[in-house]
Amino acid sequence: MNRLNRLLLRSFAILRVFAPSWWIGVRVYHEDTKTQRLPRLHGPGCITWALLLISLTSCSHETRKAEKTAVPVRVAAVEIFTPRAGERYSASIEPARQVNLAFRVSGIVQYLHQIRAADGHMRSLEPGDMVTAGTVLARLRQEDYDIQLRQAQGQLDAARENEKAARAQVGQAQAASARAEADFARAKALSESQSLTQPDFDSAKAQHDSTRAQVEAARAQLEAAAAQLHSADAALASARLALQDTSLAAPFSAAVVQRSIELGALVGPSLTAMSLADLSSVKASLGVPDLVAVHLKRGEALSIFAEALPEREFRGVVTAVAAVADSNTRLFQVQLTLPNPQAALKPGMIATLSLGSPIKAEPVPVVPLSAVVRPQEGTTGFAVMVIEENQARRKPVVLGNTYGDRIAVVHGLKLGERVVASGATLIAEGDNVEVIP
Predict the structure, then answer these.
(1) Is the N or the C terminus of the chain less surrounded, counting Cβ atoms within 10 Å?
(2) CA angle, corner 80, sides to 77 and 84, nearest 5?
(3) Domain extent at residue 391
(4) pTM
(5) What is the mean pLDDT of the chain?
(6) Which of 103-107, 340-344, 377-381 shows the lowest per-residue confidence on average (mean pLDDT)?
(7) What is the CATH number of the domain that holds 160?
């Protein structure tokens, strides 16, 4: 209505210029002022106005026709697919082993392992890069821990000198004790023959007791020096270990899952520096009911298919069957191990396998999942857009099971019909389409 008012106002402005004698005012509605006066025409003016209005209407209609262009789409034909026999179960792919690496000590990141990028320049490791066992992935600044190592070495050398001095004191004390003991023995013999006065005997006895006490004290000092030596030796070993821990090495050949550090960053033991995953083999974990679990045995070989690689078959071996069902799902967890030398299977992928049914599956017509759309408003179910004479026609369908990126159509389509596989949500019933490869 607003557009028509604007067209009328524009046409009457032209008429007012070229035919002012035909202009008489009539109050009509206008969206802005609501008081715009449009002309009432009579005589030849009526004919002129009618021709002008027909011309404007014809131009508008032709413009709308020109705007309705063909929509480019990709199509796929309805084809037959034979499902694999047995109940289908979904499994999640996990790495055979995954480890989160962290520094045992704190420090500033001084080095990150570099690899050559596609453009020929060197860059730091990123998720997806492969590393071999023993590769130094990152290193902290070592000067701080090298100083601690030298300090520990100096303390150990000092403890060794103290231990030597304590041993020498023990030797001196033992020699003095031996002389005092000999003197005391002679003094005792002379005292018994009354050849030695009592004060001399008492002096010899006191000297004997004193030297024995000195020996005990020297031995105690030697034990303390030995303990100090052991402590210094342990401190040196700890300093050496801390220096070694400034380097982070790959414990096995793996793919980088995550890198959380940068050059110059201050890191500590609480921060995971890198995560590595061994992809030389992967695990597929799934839950099965008890009727299937009782027939699975460790070492049994099974075929598994990845949804991302529907044409490839992977063989795995059952390596674990849970002894107890999950209390929430009542399913038994089963684990398969699959060799993955080319790293085709990635952790996080969804895989499927068929178990527990000897019945042969019947072929079914399938279409791409992307071809399924909702039907017209006010109805339920699903539909697909079928191409007929380069026009889109919406057909209601009854869907069945999914098979990777395809879905079975139980009713509504014929074999060979072309359905819109890409762009189905962008077109409507009766739209002109252009099929592109």
Answers:
(1) C
(2) 140
(3) 71-82+362-435
(4) 0.53
(5) 82
(6) 377-381
(7) 1.10.287.620
pLDDT at 292 over 60: yes
Contact 348, 355 (CB under 8 A): no
Going by pLDDT thresholds of 50, 70 and 90, the confidence category of residue 41 is very low
Question: Which residues share a beta bridge with 360?
Answer: none
Domain presence at residue 89 = no
What CA–CA distance (Å, rounded) separates 115 from 125?
7
Neighbours of 390 (CB within 10 A): 11
User: What stretch of H or E contains 124?
Assistant: strand 122-124
Same domain, 108 and 254: yes
Rounded Cα–Cα distance for residues 43 and 46 (Å): 6
Helix (H, G, I), strand (E, B) or coil at 186: helix
Please measure the distance between the N-terminal and C-terminal CA atoms of the chain and give it in whole angstroms. 42
> Does 94 reside within a domain?
no
Q: Which of 218-222, 272-276, 355-359 has the highest mean pLDDT?
A: 272-276
174 and 201 together in one domain: yes
Contacts of 45 (CB under 8 A, 6+ apart): 15, 19, 22, 39
Task: Please indicate, yes or no, whether residues 118 and 254 belong to a single structural domain of this protein.
Answer: yes
Has residue 92 been placed in a domain? no
Q: What is the CATH number of the domain that holds 377?
A: 2.40.420.20
Q: What pLDDT shows up at residue 219?
A: 87
Lowest mean pLDDT among 26-30, 147-151, 329-333: 26-30
Q: Compute the distance between CA of residue 81 and CA of residue 405 in angstroms, rounded to an integer.
A: 12
**Domain-ending residue, one of 355, 371, 390:** 355
Together in a domain, 132 and 253 = yes
Residue 39: what pLDDT?
Answer: 45
**345 and 413 housed in the same domain:** no
pLDDT on residue 174: 86
Q: How many domains does the chain have?
A: 5
Do 340 and 70 form a contact (C-beta atoms < 8 A)? no
**Two tokens, residue 261:** 């550090």
Asked if pLDDT for residue 304 goes beyond 60, the answer is yes
Regarding whether 153 and 130 lie in a shared domain, the answer is no
Share of the chain above pLDDT 70, in %: 82
Helix (H) or strand (E) holding 258: strand 254-259
Q: Is residue 88 part of a domain?
A: no
Task: Tell whether 53 and 122 lie within a shared domain.
Answer: no
Contact by Cβ (8 Å): 122, 115: yes
160 and 203: one domain? yes
Count CA atoms closer than 13 A to 431's CA, side-chain side.
20
